[in-house]
């Protein structure tokens, strides 16, 4: 695939990509890295023939591609058409004219390849973010296109599954002669696998030395000793929660303390569902006590004044049209002793959002949306902030900025964080609570 | 019976009883629909609920015709029963139809464009998501200090915006999985209308029309 992009812009006088002239050789594994908002998704959508057809952008250039492409979105929530996992497989296989008598075998093979056999008859709605990404990867692989384009496909996937899937994709590239083009912010596990590494910077795409990836080979799993020196904030008594027909917690009792708690577990274990229960979005049985009061007895308005939450899908967080309006709304609920204009301007600059104030939310990149979402919820004066995958799809420097902010505010409020990306969290996390066989337990061996 | 034939049949029945005033035909239709719903789908609660839902418009039209109408009480009773005939025939059709079967049959037997069919199907599939989305909007607004109730315009504004965003992404989602408009596709579920189904369809139409002469 040879690409010659002279210019691509969504608006007049605002170029997103300029002078990109690169070739992706067949049967190679290509990793594209770069900071949030550099135009990686725009580039991939051009490569996947979705843009300029589905954008209002102006494209000047050519993309010579004799092969068919399959494309995976950054946000897994917008990728599905059908109701269940099996129906989605069938839809994709019908599109590619696979004879109907072969479909069952192909579906079984790919479900097994990604270790998701249990999800076959589940509705897409009931899947977790990570499960959606795994299912869609399996579907894309099953339709046997020559070029597979993946836009941050592991953002919500746990580290163990991530490594297995990267190896599976490498296996397909080598043995089934596929060309892989992938963007990712987490650079670990790639150094021995990639053929080429490209960097998006200043609207351009440059090939860089792949040995640079060697610095990122680190184990992300962090070890937090359990030492409850602080008072309890939440208590669970005989708590049971169901997601569809699946029991995710069964008669579990434990406590969450003031401070920063990392909530850990494999994809689909029910981490986000637990946060849903804490904000009355999901029914449960048993008792949840917040500051010693039964959650069921606390009025919804008072509860949501105490607990704030960032959603895994950042589009769900925004209520206004522009960045400025979102910040103004958050400022109304902020503690003005902690948040003055000077501090806010500095944080906006650190998060690289200062120049985006007048932008429409829809025009922000996935990473910029994540940072804005985090900022507006941090500004609101909640006692406890629930963060659901706040670092998914963010570059390392952005994650460090968010971690610094958590550190700065951890004396003022408590945090419960769900994150598969834990590289920078060791310094700030006080407790690590794990989903283990339908129970909530603090890290094993540390009691 | 094939889902599309069933839909066409219910539309023909609804169309005919809209223009031909016959109290007895309405009553017979209601009895047949209710009996099928009771014995085939055990929909006791739903029948009771639908009866209550239809009560206000049905009584409204009955009273207005009895008090102010020029065409006598028989016409008023016909209008009253017509509402329930619509409700129960409509419910019987939806209760006995699987949306996937309907879409597959529209595509394969009636050559309706696949893009249109999958658009409808996706809209059905998004129903649960939309309900969940409305819950999230309310929850999120409360966290951000905005009181929002079921009648707040901002609730629906945000819900509509989200739906538009979904719709925008749907075409891309389809294409990213190899979908091409007007291209040949295979079918996992084969939808075939048997001769028996066609004969049954014609027989029901004929016997229904004969009812008007009894």
What order do the strands of the largest sheet of chain A run in, or round the barrel if closed?
A: 5-6-7-3-8-9
Q: How many H/I helical runs of chain B?
A: 9
Unreliably modeled segments of chain B: none
Number of domains of chain B: 2
Average pLDDT over all residues of chain B: 90
Structural class of chain A: alpha/beta
Number of helices of chain A: 11
Helix content of chain A: 25-40%
Task: Give the terminus-to-terminus CA distance of chain A.
Answer: 55 Å
Q: Alpha-carbon distance between the termini of chain B?
A: 27 Å
Order of helices and strands of chain B: HHHHHHHHH
Labels describing this entry:
heterodimer, A: 447 residues, alpha/beta, six-stranded mixed beta sheet, 11 helices, B: 214 residues, mainly alpha, 9 helices, flat
Question: How does this model look, in words?
Answer:
The complex is a heterodimer of chains A (447) and B (214). Helices cover 28% and strands 26% of the residues of chain A. Chain A has 447 residues and is an alpha/beta fold. In chain A, the strands form four sheets. A six-stranded mixed β-sheet of chain A has the order 5-6-7-3-8-9, sandwiched between helices. A six-stranded mixed β-sheet of chain A has the order 15-16-17-12-18-19, with helices on both faces. In chain A, a hairpin with a 2-residue loop joins strand 1 (2-11) and strand 2 (14-23). Chain A is globular, with a radius of gyration of 22 Å. The mean pLDDT of chain A is 89. Chain B has two domains: 3-101 and 193-213, no CATH class; 114-176, no CATH class. The interface between A and B is large, with 60 and 48 residues.
């Amino acid at each position: 695939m040879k690409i010659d992009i002279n210019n691509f812009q969504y608006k007049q006088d605002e170029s997103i990509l300029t002078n990109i002239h690169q070739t992706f050789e067949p049967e190679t594994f290509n990793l594209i890295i770069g900071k949030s908002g550099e135009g990686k998704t725009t580039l991939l959508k051009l490569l996947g023939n979705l843009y300029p057809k589905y954008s209002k952008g102006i494209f000047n250039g050519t993309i010579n591609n004799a092969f068919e492409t399959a494309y995976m979105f950054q946000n897994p929530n917008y990728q599905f058409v059908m109701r269940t996992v099996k129906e989605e497989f069938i839809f994709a296989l019908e599109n590619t004219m696979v004879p109907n008598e072969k479909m069952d075998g192909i579906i079984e093979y790919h479900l097994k390849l990604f270790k998701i056999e249990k999800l076959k008859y589940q509705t897409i709605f009931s899947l977790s973010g990570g499960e959606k990404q795994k299912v869609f990867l399996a579907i894309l692989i099953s339709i046997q296109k020559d070029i597979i384009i993946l836009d941050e496909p592991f953002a919500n996937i746990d580290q163990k599954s991530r490594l297995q899937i990267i190896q599976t994709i490498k296996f397909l590239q080598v043995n089934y002669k596929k060309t892989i083009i992938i963007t990712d912010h987490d650079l670990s596990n790639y150094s021995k696998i990639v053929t080429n590494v490209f960097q998006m910077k200043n609207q351009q795409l440059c090939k860089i030395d792949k040995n640079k990836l060697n610095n990122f080979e680190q184990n992300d799993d962090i070890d937090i000793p359990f030492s409850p020196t602080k008072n309890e904030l939440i208590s669970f008594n005989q708590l049971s929660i169901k997601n569809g027909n699946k029991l995710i917690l069964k008669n579990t009792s434990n406590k969450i303390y003031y401070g920063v708690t990392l909530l850990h577990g494999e994809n689909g274990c029910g981490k986000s569902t637990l946060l849903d229960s804490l904000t009355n979005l999901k029914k449960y049985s048993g008792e949840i006590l917040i500051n010693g009061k039964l959650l069921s007895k606390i009025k919804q308005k008072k509860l949501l004044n105490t607990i704030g939450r960032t959603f895994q899908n950042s589009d769900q967080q925004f209520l206004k049209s522009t960045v400025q309006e979102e910040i103004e709304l958050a400022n109304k609920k902020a503690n003005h002793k902690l948040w003055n204009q000077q501090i806010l301007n500095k944080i906006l600059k650190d998060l690289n959002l200062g120049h985006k104030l007048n932008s429409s939310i829809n025009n922000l990149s996935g990473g910029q949306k994540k940072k804005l979402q985090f900022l507006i919820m941090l500004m609101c004066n909640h006692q406890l902030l629930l963060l659901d995958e706040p670092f998914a799809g963010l570059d390392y420097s952005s994650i460090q900025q968010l971690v610094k902010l958590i550190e700065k505010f951890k004396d003022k409020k408590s945090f419960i964080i769900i994150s598969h990306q834990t590289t920078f969290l060791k310094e700030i996390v006080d407790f690590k609570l794990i989903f283990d066989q339908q129970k909530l337990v603090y890290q094993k061996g540390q009691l | 019976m094939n889902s599309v034939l069933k839909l066409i049949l219910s539309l023909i029945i609804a169309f005919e009883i809209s223009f031909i005033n016959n109290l007895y035909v309405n009553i017979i239709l209601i009895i047949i629909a209710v009996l099928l719903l009771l014995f085939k789908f055990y929909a006791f609660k739903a029948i009771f609920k639908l009866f209550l839902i239809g009560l206000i418009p049905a009584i409204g039209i009955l009273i207005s015709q009895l008090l102010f109408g020029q065409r006598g009480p028989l016409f008023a009773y016909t209008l009253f029963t017509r509402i329930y005939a619509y409700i129960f025939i409509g419910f019987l059709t939806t209760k006995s139809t699987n949306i996937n079967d309907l879409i597959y049959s529209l595509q394969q037997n009636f050559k309706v464009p696949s893009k249109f069919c999958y658009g409808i199907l996706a809209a059905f599939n998004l129903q649960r998501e939309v309900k969940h989305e409305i819950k999230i909007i309310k929850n999120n607004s409360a966290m951000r200090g905005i009181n929002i109730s079921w009648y707040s315009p901002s609730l629906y504004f945000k819900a509509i915006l989200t739906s538009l965003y979904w719709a925008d992404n749907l075409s891309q989602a389809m294409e990213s999985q190899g979908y091409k408009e007007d291209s040949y596709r295979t079918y996992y579920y084969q939808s075939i209308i048997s001769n028996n189904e066609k004969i049954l369809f014609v027989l029901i139409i004929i016997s229904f029309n004969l009812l008007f002469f009894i």
